[in-house]
Amino acid sequence: MTPTLLGRWQTRLLLFVIVGIPVTWWWTEVLAARDGGRSLVPAGIIATILLVGLALDWVYVQYQKRHWDHDWPFAYQLASMIFEFVLVLALIHFGLVPWLPSGILYFPQAVWDATRHFAAVLIPAFLLLLGPLQTFLVRWRFKGGELGRM
Amino acid sequence: MAKAPKSLTIDIVASDGTVPMQRLSLSPGRYTVGRSRDNTIVLDAAEISRVHLILHVDADGIEVEDNASTHGTRIGDRQIERERWSMDEPIVLPRFEIRAAAAGPAAGKTKSPGAEPPVEKVAAASAIEFSRIVGIDDAQSAERPFPGDLFAGPVVSTGAIRASGCLAGETTFAAIGGGIGSFIWVDHLRCFGVPAEHIRVVGVNPVCYSNWGRYCQNSQIPPHERIRSNAISTPDNIWGFPGYASRESWRALLSGNLAGTRPVFQVFGEAAVAESYTPLLENIFSSLDREMVRIGWTSMLEQGRVLGLRMTDDGRYALAYRRTADRADGGRRDNILIASYVHVCTGYPATRFTGDLQAFRAAHRDDANMVVNAYDPHDQIYREVQASGRPERVMVRGRGIVASRVIQRLYEARAGNPQIEIVHQMRSRIPDSAGTRNGPAKRPVFNDVELQPFNWPKACWGGDLRQEIENMTPAQRAESFSLLGGTTTADRTDWKDIAINGAREGWYIKAYGNVDSMKPTGASDNRQVAITFKDVDGQMSAYTVDYIIDCTGLIADVTQSPFLADLIDTYGLARNPTSGTGAENRLAGIAVASSFEIPGLRNGNSRAYAAGTITQNGPYAAVDSFLGLAYAALRSVDDLNTASAPGVSGFGPVRSFTQWLRWCTGSAP
What we know:
The complex is a heterodimer. By secondary structure, chain A is mostly helical. Chain A is built from five helices and no strands. The longest helix of chain A has 31 residues, at 5-35. The longest helix of chain B is centred in the C-terminal third of the chain and has 17 residues, at 626-642.
């Protein structure tokens, strides 16, 4: 993949809408059934990953430019997605996310829940990037990940 | 005229057969004979040069002129340049002979008595790829070349076309070229909603990959080899999914071959942690075969050679073409097709010899066969050096991907003859630290060759570099192309090993500099070329070699194509600037807009587009690649939608996905 900054942002938002939101809604219902009450924590975490990711996209693009092909291999994509999740957990842990108190991660069960939630978002989102997205958006791969016509 | 017709009838016979494959009556005129489809007589064998010889027929008989062919022309056993043919002895070419017609029916004499074998069988028996002999033009057309006066001006009236009796039909979309570029454009049109009945394709080859396949074959890429392309560069699938790596792995998985699933992991890790995946040539051929059937390619194809394109007075385009003899079904060969939207994608006009090698071939015609272009047929060199059993030294010129493959092929020949040496000639050294720089990025270098997975940085196809180049002025683009293009090869472990081991064991030698002198030497049974180089520091080096293989490329000069030259002249079409120097010089293509429309050809609501190498140095760098052709097709078909061309949908997500499902199931679009 050779995404541009605008392309990264648009693709990230698209995946957030078509994968992140529905999976998070479903996961919130699953937890509600178990714990007897809806929690905003999954939505808070996924939204934080989105914001952190939008910022990191700028860093990724600078890194791409350092390589002759300006390439972003699939392996980097997967690694960066996992990195963003771990980074957000760390930010929460150190109390650096104002809307998510660090207390939400005190129990191992909470970390495990967040990991399963993230995996449920990551796997379909990454698989879509491997090609299936192109079957809907034929111009996407030529626009560095941007949506719409040429 | 005074001569009896019988004396000017010739037979074309396979060297190892006696049955004439074709009998031809020659009226006065000039006839070219060669492998290229443009010749009046086409002899389809690898050892025949593009235009091998010329027959000058006049009232007194036939004069034979060898056209600096690689393997030469003989009359009897005499090598000739130009001389009158007594017709007593045959004209001897590699694999063919031209003889005065024998008495009796054309296929009357057979090697074995009994049933006459059909012509195809003779061809197969002599192992010649004898696809077709294009018939001789009648003398009339030599005097009044088609389309002649009809196309004299820039605008032709549809009334005049009808009156000429040459009108073959009217269509909405016409693709000129019939190669892979035309195919990808037509594939997009079909998926976007245009029925096959509204599309016509004009090209000389029955199959879209004929010409490209020949380049692969000549440059030593057999069908089971991998080509320098990407998994998602899928000329048979406009979405690029599933790519060739997924398909290859899927097939391996289905047959229980777990190791065969390596390609998907390669794509996953390329190019950072794994060598770039490259697809198998045979898989590309078979995928194109399948897609040609799915979209009805044969039903759209008019097999013939395009001669000219003109605007019509009713705001369309007229396309003059000459049907190949075997498709002319006894009727008219000269035809004009009228179309509202045309797409020009005719590929490389010619193969290139660098000036010094061209001069050598011209000055030493008897020894010209020691110098070949890697894109022309030259298999016999590998066979000869492998079988000779004596020291053989082959010079390979250039540092591109073809040079790498040719060196690999010579390495393979070393298995049969360990005395083969390779002299790899390059203009200058490239120290490992001197790779081209673009911003903070540097292109890696190995063994004096810059490495790049594909022929442009990857982001030129669909990344930031594509956008940047599109937004540049023509002058800025030329500068950028000089920087980003250049000759590169792929980072392949097997190729690196050949260079490393060859240098250590002494059979791979590097020579630097430009040619200072070059002359034939040695006894007649062991001719060689003595060659000296002068490098940038004035240092001289001298080598004696048995063969020289020029791997510096194909000519992209659009004016070398008579069809394009006429089009440029007639409409004063703008050209792109040139870029690069020396062998890396990229010649200027026809200027196109970002939509790949040729602005100078707009005619009312009708539009003409171009794609492929003929648009070199324009708004898109990687025009000469599968993915680049897909990009150009997408841009132009999107533009057709904007222009409300009939049947071309907007191709939004729903249509895109349903069309993709049709592709998966093999249903027509």
